[in-house]
Design goal:
By secondary structure, this protein is mainly alpha-helical. Helix content is 76%, strand content 0%. It contains 15 helices and no strands. Helix 1 packs parallel to helix 14, helix 3 packs antiparallel against helix 6 and helix 3 runs antiparallel to helix 15. The termini are close together. The C terminus is likely disordered.
Amino acid sequence: MPYNPALDGVRALSILAVVLFHCELPGARGGFVGLDVFFVLSGYLITSLLAAEYRHGSIDIGRFYARRALRLYPTLLLMIAVYVGLAPILWPADDRWLSAVLAALYIYDYALAFWELAYTIGHTWSLGVEEKFYLLWPLVLPLLLRTPRPVGWLVFAFVAVSAWRYFVAMDGTWSQAYFRFDTRMSGILLGAIAALIRFKVSKHALAIACMVLLVLLALPSLPTSNQTAAVTLRITLAEVSAFVLICYAAEHGRATFLASRPMVYIGRLSYGIYLWHFPLALLLRDTQPLWITLSATLAFSFTMAAICLHLVDMPLKRWRQKAWPEVRSTA
């Protein structure tokens, strides 16, 4: 599928919201909704990629898994290695080996939902949600595309998963509703719907979606207040608004702001920023002034993300393109 710079712009907005939230910036206390945007975007990108491959013959599942591993695993393993090395000094109370194993195996999502754990690299729970989707979707999507109404089934699945999350939130704890793959894949499914229907967005709908996301970004929320509302209605509103934003970006790939060079570059760095920012923000935010926490976190995470992009990801991408020259990806 052709490269769309506006989608990198969406990534940039999402990661900035998440970083501001984790640094506890006033006015961004609901910035966890940036992850909802990421989930919808992941569903859109991967479904678009796999559906195009399916239409041209069949999905090469082994190659898909290998490409995902080469794209995501090296930077993750580097971050885990740095954490394990520094944990005895900076986080001596952590069971660093347990945390490392949970992160490396992409199971921090269920671990946080049911166990009391060190949270230093617990932000990798969202990677666990996405990796389970990457594992299952190449197997499920071909079956879905053979049905008469694949979008109808996806809408049903989105409603069912959302209802399941609401039930878990009412019957259990916010963490059980918030972290788990089975309760959080609703956004990914909504992204898959966007990939298959190519919904056209009016400027009026886009304005409403952006306003909803801004309000959700500003509202005080997890983990200290409004926990049930945050993991039920607010997630649904964020997902639907992200759906509108991503459909617009998909249709307007050269949108002036989203496709601007700074936004595109931040979007390209977003995976690395996400991995590197949280341990430092967690370390600083309870003991240092906001300006120190925010400036240090931004400087460190952007620097590490740029190093990983240019010295790890891009060389691996060039090798990957030589190994599989017929495959092109924006993911």
